[in-house]
Write a structure and sequence with these properties.
- The chain is of the alpha+beta class.
- The chain is rod-shaped.
- A hairpin with a 5-residue loop joins strand 3 and strand 4.
- Helix content is 52%, strand content 16%.
- It has three domains: 130 residues, no CATH class; 60 residues; 161 residues, Histidine kinase-like ATPase, C-terminal domain (Heat Shock Protein 90), CATH 3.30.565.10.
- The strands form three sheets. Strands 10-11-9-8-6-12 form a six-stranded mixed β-sheet. Strands 2-1-4-3 form a four-stranded antiparallel β-sheet. A two-stranded antiparallel sheet has the order 5-7.
- Helix 3 runs parallel beside helix 4.
C-alpha cells in the first residue's frame, strides 16, 4: 500500500509539474523576448530625441552625432546603432556605431521623418541566454516542488500505510488466537474507529473463549466422573457368573474406554491442542464400527457391509474425528435409509487421497433440501427442516475438514455420501478388492 500511495502521489506531482512547468516555460521565454524588445524600443526613443535635437537647418542629422558620448552611453552592451539617411543628392547613406555583431540579431527601429531611419540591434544569442536562464529557473522551481512533494508523499504514505500494516498484523495475531495485543490509536479517525472495533471484538472473543473453555472443562469433568462410576459398575458386572452378562459388561467397558478416549480428543481439540498427523488404519477402524452398529441394523432387519480397495490408510491428526464422521453417516442411514447400508473404501492414487462412501437404497435427499443438509440447525426429520437438532452432518463435515478432508453428498437418490481425506500411502500399492464384511457380529450397542 505504501508503494501504491507513493506512486499515485508522484504521478499527480509529475502531472501537475508538467501542466504548470510547460506553460510557465513558454511564458518565461516570451517574457524575456518581450522585455528585450521593450528595452530596445525605450533606448531608441531616447536616442531619437537626442538626434532630433541635433538636426540641422536642412532637417538632416549630422552623421558625427552618432559617435558622440551622449549616444554611446545609451547603447546596450554589445549593441549596434545604425542610421540610414538621404544625403543632399538623395542617395541613401548608412552610418553605424557600436560593437560589431556576428550572427543573428534582435533589432528594433524607429522613423525620424526626413532625417532617415534609426535601428538598434543586439546579439540574438544574448537574448537566448536570458531566455534559457528563465526557463531554467522555472525548471528548478518545478523540480524543487516535485522533490518537496515527494518528501511529503513519502511521509504521508508512511503515516497511512504503517498504521494499516500494524493493524493488519494485530488482526492476524487475533485470528491466530493471540488476544493479548494492545489496540492503540493512530491519530487517523477512520483507522481509530477500526482499531476500537477490533479491540472490542478481541475482548469479546477472548471472554467467550474463556467461558467456553471453562464450560468444556466442567463438562469434561462431569462426564469423566460419570464414566468412572459406570466403569466401576461394569467392572463388578464383569465378575458375574453368567458368561452372557460378562460379555455384555466387557463390550460396555470397551465402549466406555473408547468414549473416554474420544472425550480426551475433543477436549484437546477445543483447547486447540493440535497433534501431528499420522497414519490411521481405516480398515481396523471401520471393521470395529461395523461391529458396533451390527446389532442395531439386525434389529431393523437391514444389512450393513464394508468393502475395502487397497491398503485403506488415512493421514489424520485425530482418528476419532474420521470415525465419528462415518458414524454420523451410518447412523443417518439407519434412521432415514432403507435396504443395505454399504460402506466402500478406495484409493484415489492421482490425488493421494482416500475415499470413503456410505450409501443405501433409501428415497434419498429431496432437491429442495440438498443445499441445506450440511447447515447447522437444519434437520431432515421435518419438511420445514426444523425439529431435530440438525447437528449431525454439520458436525461430521467439520470433523472431516479439521483433518484436511471433505464431506459431500455425491448422489441424491439413492443417497450416497463421500468422505475424501489425505491418504496415508504413497499411492504405489496395487488396489485389490476385499470381500464385504457381512458376517461380523459383536453384541455391542451402536457407537454414538
Amino acid at each position: 500500500m505504501r508503494r501504491r500511495i507513493l506512486n499515485t502521489m508522484l504521478a499527480m506531482l509529475l502531472a501537475v509539474g508538467a501542466l504548470l512547468g510547460i506553460p510557465l516555460s513558454v511564458v518565461a521565454w516570451w517574457w524575456v523576448a518581450d522585455n528585450a524588445h521593450q528595452s530596445l524600443d525605450a533606448r531608441l526613443k531616447v536616442i531619437s530625441d537626442q538626434l532630433i535635437r541635433a538636426e540641422g537647418p536642412d532637417g538632416r542629422v549630422p552623421p558625427d552625432v552618432l559617435t558622440g558620448e551622449d549616444v554611446a552611453v545609451l547603447l546596450p552592451p554589445d549593441g549596434r546603432l545604425t542610421l540610414r539617411y538621404p544625403d543632399a543628392t538623395g542617395i541613401e547613406r548608412t552610418t553605424t556605431t557600436g560593437s560589431q555583431i556576428d550572427g543573428k540579431t534582435m533589432a528594433d527601429s524607429i522613423g525620424l521623418g526626413d532625417a532617415g531611419t534609426l535601428a538598434l540591434e543586439i546579439p540574438l544569442d544574448q537574448v537566448r541566454d536570458d531566455q534559457l536562464a528563465a526557463v531554467g529557473i522555472v525548471a528548478i522551481v518545478v523540480a524543487g516542488s516535485i522533490v518537496a512533494g515527494t518528501v511529503v508523499a513519502a511521509v504521508t504514505a508512511g503515516r497511512i500505510a504503517d498504521p494499516l500494516t500494524d493493524l493488519a498484523a494485530r488482526a492476524g495475531a487475533m485470528a491466530r488466537g493471540d488476544f493479548r495485543s494492545d489496540w492503540k490509536m493512530y491519530g487517523i479517525a477512520e483507522l481509530d474507529r477500526v482499531s476500537r472495533a477490533l479491540g472490542d471484538a478481541n475482548a469479546e472473543i477472548a471472554l467467550r473463549l474463556e467461558r467456553e473453555g471453562e464450560i468444556v472443562g466442567d463438562v469434561s469433568h462431569q462426564l469423566r466422573s460419570r464414566l468412572t462410576a459406570i466403569q466401576l459398575r461394569l467392572d463388578e458386572l464383569s465378575m458375574h457368573s453368567d458368561p452372557a452378562v460378562v460379555n455384555e459388561a466387557e463390550a460396555a467397558l470397551s465402549q466406555v474406554e473408547r468414549l473416554s478416549s474420544e472425550l480426551d480428543e475433543m477436549v484437546a481439540a477445543a483447547r486447540d491442542d493440535r497433534g501431528a498427523p499420522h497414519v490411521t488404519d481405516v480398515r481396523d477402524m471401520l471393521t470395529t464400527l461395523v461391529g458396533d452398529f451390527r446389532s442395531a441394523f439386525d434389529a431393523a432387519h437391514r444389512e450393513l457391509s464394508v468393502t475395502f480397495h487397497g491398503t485403506a490408510q488415512a493421514l489424520s491428526a485425530r482418528p476419532g474425528r474420521l470415525r465419528e464422521a462415518v458414524s454420523v453417516l451410518v447412523d443417518n442411514s439407519l434412521q432415514h435409509g432403507r435396504g443395505e447400508c454399504r460402506i466402500t473404501v478406495g484409493e484415489l492414487p492421482r490425488a493421494n487421497m482416500l475415499r470413503i462412501t456410505v450409501a443405501d437404497d433409501g428415497e434419498g435427499v429431496p432437491d429442495s433440501a440438498a443445499e441445506h443438509i450440511f447447515r447447522r440447525g437444519y434437520s431432515a426429520g421435518r419438511a420445514d427442516g426444523v425439529g431435530g437438532n440438525g447437528v449431525g452432518l454439520s458436525l461430521a463435515r467439520a470433523l472431516v475438514e479439521a483433518d484436511g478432508g471433505r464431506l459431500e453428498l455425491t448422489v441424491r437418490r439413492p443417497p450416497e455420501f463421500a468422505i475424501v481425506v489425505p491418504s496415508g500411502t504413497d499411492g504405489d500399492d496395487p488396489p485389490g478388492p476385499t470381500p464385504p464384511l457381512t458376517g461380523i457380529r459383536r453384541d455391542r450397542v451402536p457407537h454414538r
